[in-house]
Amino acid sequence: MEQLPKATVQQFIKSITNGDMKCSNEFVTQVMSMAKEYIQQVSDQANTICLENGKKTISGEFFYKAIQKLRLEGQIQFLKEIEEEIKEEVNVKNQNKARFQDEDHLRQLEEQQKELYEKAKLENNKHIVDDEDNSKPRKTLNLQFDQEEEDPQ
């Protein structure tokens, strides 16, 4: 079985300890070994329960049954809380993704972008007077971008 990525485990440990604690390589290796063993035990047990139920897909239901069968019931409440947090994160990501698929929202963003572009263009095209000689304007950039026009279909 493959090892968990050491850098990922180190980063996880660092986030848990808020970066305040240094960890030896031995500690990181032990955490990696224990996490691997935990994943292997739970997956194996969940797979067995799944097959006993005549199913081919391991679901969350089988995960929790495996946790119970391994006599780790004390973890279930904590794991369910984590599951809810993950579901919320996924829901927020899906909502944000949906916002960028909403044509009205995209039109609003495009209008805002055009307004900002025009505002920046006006600011950039103003003549800035040199501090030393008030009558001598500095060179200014004249930004012009070709904007693609939508092809009416």
From TrEMBL:
Keywords: Nucleus. InterPro entries: CBFA_NFYB_domain, Ncb2. The keyword Transcription does not apply. Residues 3-61 form the Transcription factor CBF/NF-Y/archaeal histone domain. One of its GO terms (cellular component) is negative cofactor 2 complex. It is found in: Nucleus. It comes from the Eukaryota. One of its GO terms (molecular function) is RNA polymerase II general transcription initiation factor activity. Residues 121-153 are annotated as: Disordered. GO terms for biological process: negative regulation of transcription by RNA polymerase II; RNA polymerase II preinitiation complex assembly. This is Transcription factor CBF/NF-Y/archaeal histone domain-containing protein. It comes from Paramecium sonneborni. The lineage of its organism: Eukaryota, Sar, Alveolata, Ciliophora, Intramacronucleata.
